[in-house]
């Protein structure tokens, strides 16, 4: 083989490797995006059913209840405008509290309950998950527009 | 008074940083030794003043001086002394001061260990480091002054985030920062070489130990951080693909590529432009990591501040660094020349392949981490990218990397015969596949992931053994001692680090496939079974600490009626912030961890308890330790010192002439 064609093969092989790797990354990326919806959007039916997404807001006061097994917890997430019932089995984060911000990830059931597989709460006293803050802000904006 | 002293020292450090950035650079371009010589004392003086500043801040924390805003928000008079000291970096301002101090420490190390380098080159390196320091010190002074006063002072501080009150937090940030910031040295060497237009084997050799040491720190920092998350977050995960972890992982991947690329540049003169580009990118990603972590754009335990001005400042710094260095690169790179040629089948090719794959892997982490931030910043909706994406990407990208990693060392530089090389490793390769299948079958968990992971690990171990055997039998006739002594430290380093990857894969694979967990309601005397272990709940007592109240459960762990351990997980309530915390209790073993964390009390005497069985999880950190140790061996190779002595003579002659 001539040096020139060797070089060509090397470059060609490198480019092919790169293209394959990039294609892999992009397709994995597209399949695994998790979208975020506010409770209002979920209530309006804008959220997908059967697909994982995230909802953020405040945990409604007085909504946390434990089922008889003691492990399944139900609570409600609100952006102050709409309320979404959530059910979750597992350990809750230490800072998960009523009246505080939280983000849940999971799927929407046919009965309108959100079955969470993951619950995220804030990390310290004055830190609110940006998604939760965003949901409440959106809802209060919407409320402001309605009242005008 | 003390805080003002600290503030003043920081201003003086900035002044010296400006001197260090400008004077030696001017000296190097005009060839004036007197000006070049300013670099070293300026850098050392700068370190002195940053150290004074840092000590002053620590003093405010130790003395519980709550007229200092930072101490008031992050410390408490009842906090144990240890956490008062580490609380200094458990916040935005203090951790940036630590960043600046690590940079200064690295710079001082350069001033000490560069006697053998040409004076003009050292002057340029110190100049570049000076500019980076100017950027960070002005960032501190302009947007994040750690010495801001709180007037009137408060009587009691708000305490350090309880998650950070942990021994792991004592060493994680300094290690990580030494790693992050260490890449600034490789960066400065690359920029200095671009400025002189001299990117040769000598430059690569000078950069190598610095890059390797920075990489060792980064590896250790990431491993400690992962260990901390494992026992402190209370649910037994060790890696979460959280943006902050990704921020440290991206420079690690590129740093790994850079180390290997430097090896090729030194030995064969090839990959020069690529090496320079990697050095620039690795440091840029370190800066980007600082931006992600410190700008408050993400939800994380690390996101202290949400002041947009700070984010903008780091972003501007980032744009300047990347912009200027890429411009310089575009201007100089075409003149660099190609270097040694190599054929399709050669060690160079295998290293190039891995370099490309590691870079793509790093880019894929960048995409997954930054894309949601971009969308959000542009107001185009909020999305998140979770572990499934990273897993889907990493397994296919890293599989060829690991295969090539063990195949490459069997190939000769420049040119080799593919058939002969494949024939050499074929038995080990086939055996690995069989071991992978057999072991997965033996542990009764035959999934493609388990088989793949175990086969890769077996491949690494077998090929490592074959490599070592080959190396020992190479010198026929010599005694065993002579044979072993003839192996260089850097070869042992490579061997250990690669073996570490194998050990790491064993841990990741087995804990991923065989772990088990159970959430149960428990009360006094009640039992639960998991993975052959019996857990007996022995009730809960009060166990209050200096700055928290705690409930401590006692749980006896037995296996076939044999006592294994008594675990005491706690639920703590940190008083200053009213923040609850789960403190897990772990029985660590070489082949498995038994991990228990205490949940909530749901009625009197009944608690939710989470039980975890984590097989081979320590192997993850054992693997990281071997990798780090490999780095230490590689950096300690005698060759660097021997050649440094030769360079020193050359440099001295230049000075005389």
The name of the CATH superfamily of the largest domain in chain A reads Nucleic acid-binding proteins
Instruction: Calculate the mean pLDDT score of chain B and round it.
Output: 90
Radius of gyration of chain B: 27 Å
Mean pLDDT of chain A: 81
What is the highest CATH level, the class of the largest domain in chain A? Mainly Beta
* Estimated share of beta-strand residues of chain B: 5-15%
Estimate what percentage of residues of chain A fall within beta strands.
25-35%
Total number of strands of chain B: 11
**Measured distance between first and last alpha carbons of chain B:** 51 Å
Any idea what the CATH architecture of the largest domain in chain A is? Beta Barrel
- Give the low-pLDDT segments of chain A: none
- How many β strands of chain A by DSSP? 7
Physical arrangement of strands within the biggest beta sheet of chain A: 2-4-5-7-6
> How much helix, percentage-wise, in residues of chain A?
25-40%
Which of globular, elongated, flat, extended, rod-shaped describes the shape of chain A? elongated
Could you tell me which chain pair has the largest interface and how many residues each side has? A-B, 43 and 54 residues
CATH topology of the largest domain in chain A: OB fold (Dihydrolipoamide Acetyltransferase, E2P)
- Tell me the overall shape of chain B: globular
Radius of gyration of chain A: 22 Å
């Amino acid at each position: 083989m001539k040096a020139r064609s060797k070089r060509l093969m090397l470059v060609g092989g490198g480019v092919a490797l790169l293209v394959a790797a990039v294609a892999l990354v992009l397709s994995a990326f597209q399949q695994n995006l998790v979208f975020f919806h506010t409770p209002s959007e979920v209530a309006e039916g804008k959220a997908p059913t059967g697909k994982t997404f995230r909802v953020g807001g405040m945990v409604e006061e007085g909504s946390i209840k434990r089922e008889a097994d003691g492990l399944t917890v139900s609570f409600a997430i609100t952006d102050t405008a709409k309320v979404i019932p959530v059910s979750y089995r597992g350990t809750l984060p230490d800072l998960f509290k009523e009246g505080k911000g939280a983000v849940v990830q999971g799927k929407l059931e046919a009965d309108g309950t959100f079955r969470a597989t993951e619950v995220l709460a804030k990390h310290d006293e004055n830190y609110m998950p940006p998604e939760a803050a965003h949901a409440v802000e959106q809802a209060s904006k919407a409320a402001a527009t309605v009242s005008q | 008074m003390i805080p003002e002293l600290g503030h003043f020292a920081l201003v003086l450090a900035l002044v010296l940083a400006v001197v260090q950035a400008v004077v030696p650079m001017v000296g190097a371009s005009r060839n004036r030794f007197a000006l070049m010589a300013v670099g070293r004392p300026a850098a050392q003086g700068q370190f002195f003043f940053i150290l004074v500043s840092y000590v002053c801040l620590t003093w405010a924390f130790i003395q519980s001086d709550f007229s200092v805003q930072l101490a008031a928000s992050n410390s408490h008079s009842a906090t144990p002394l240890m956490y008062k000291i580490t609380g200094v970096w458990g916040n935005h301002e203090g951790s940036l001061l630590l960043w600046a101090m690590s940079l200064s420490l690295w710079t001082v190390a350069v001033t000490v260990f560069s006697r053998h380098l040409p004076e003009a080159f050292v002057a340029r390196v110190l100049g570049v480091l000076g500019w980076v320091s100017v950027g960070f010190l002005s960032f501190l002074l302009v947007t994040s002054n750690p010495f801001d006063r709180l007037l009137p002072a408060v009587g009691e501080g708000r305490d350090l985030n309880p998650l950070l009150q942990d021994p792991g937090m004592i060493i994680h940030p300094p290690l990580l920062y030494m790693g992050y910031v260490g890449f600034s040295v490789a960066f400065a060497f690359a920029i200095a070489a671009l400025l002189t237009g001299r990117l040769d084997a000598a430059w690569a050799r000078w950069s190598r130990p610095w890059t390797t040491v920075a990489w060792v720190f980064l590896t250790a920092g990431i491993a400690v951080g992962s260990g901390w998350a494992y026992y402190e977050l209370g649910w037994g995960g060790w890696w979460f693909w959280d943006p902050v972890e990704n921020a440290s992982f991206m420079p690690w991947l590129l740093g790994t590529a850079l180390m290997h690329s430097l090896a090729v540049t030194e030995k064969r003169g090839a990959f020069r432009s690529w090496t320079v580009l990697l050095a620039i990118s690795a440091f840029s990603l370190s800066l980007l990591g600082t931006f992600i972590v410190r700008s408050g754009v993400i939800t994380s335990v690390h996101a202290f501040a949400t002041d947009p001005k700070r984010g903008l400042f780091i972003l501007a710094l980032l744009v300047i660094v990347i912009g200027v260095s890429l411009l310089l690169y575009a201007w100089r790179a075409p003149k660099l020349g190609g270097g040694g040629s190599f054929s399709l089948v050669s060690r160079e090719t295998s290293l190039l392949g891995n370099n490309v794959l590691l870079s793509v892997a790093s880019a894929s982490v960048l995409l997954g981490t930054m894309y949601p931030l971009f969308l959000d910043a542009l107001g185009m909706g909020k999305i998140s990218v979770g572990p499934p994406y990273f897993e889907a990407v990493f397994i296919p990208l890293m599989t060829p990397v690991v295969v090539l990693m063990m195949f490459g060392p069997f190939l000769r530089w420049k040119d080799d015969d593919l058939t002969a090389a494949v024939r050499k490793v074929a038995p080990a390769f086939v055996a690995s596949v069989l071991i992978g299948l057999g072991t997965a079958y033996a542990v009764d968990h035959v999934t493609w992931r388990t088989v793949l992971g175990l086969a890769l690990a077996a491949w690494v171990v077998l090929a490592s053994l074959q490599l070592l055997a080959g190396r020992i039998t190479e010198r026929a006739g010599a005694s065993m001692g002579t044979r072993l002594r003839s192996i260089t430290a850097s070869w042992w380093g490579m061997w250990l680090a690669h073996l570490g990857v194998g050990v790491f894969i064993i841990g990741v694979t087995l804990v991923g496939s065989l772990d088990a967990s159970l959430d149960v309601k428990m009360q006094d005397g009640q039992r639960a079974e998991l993975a052959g272990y019996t857990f007996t709940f022995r009730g809960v007592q009060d166990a209050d600490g200096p700055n928290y109240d705690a409930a401590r459960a006692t749980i006896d762990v037995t296996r076939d009626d044999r006592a294994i351990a008594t675990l005491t997980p706690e639920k703590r309530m940190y008083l200053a912030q009213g923040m609850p915390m789960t403190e897990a209790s772990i029985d660590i073993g070489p082949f498995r961890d038994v991990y228990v964390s205490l949940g909530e009390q749901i009625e009197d005497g009944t608690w939710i308890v989470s039980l975890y069985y984590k097989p081979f999880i320590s192997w993850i950190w054992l693997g990281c330790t071997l990798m780090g140790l490999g780095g230490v061996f590689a950096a300690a190779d005698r060759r660097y010192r021997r050649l440094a002595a030769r360079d020193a003579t050359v440099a001295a002659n230049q000075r005389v002439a």
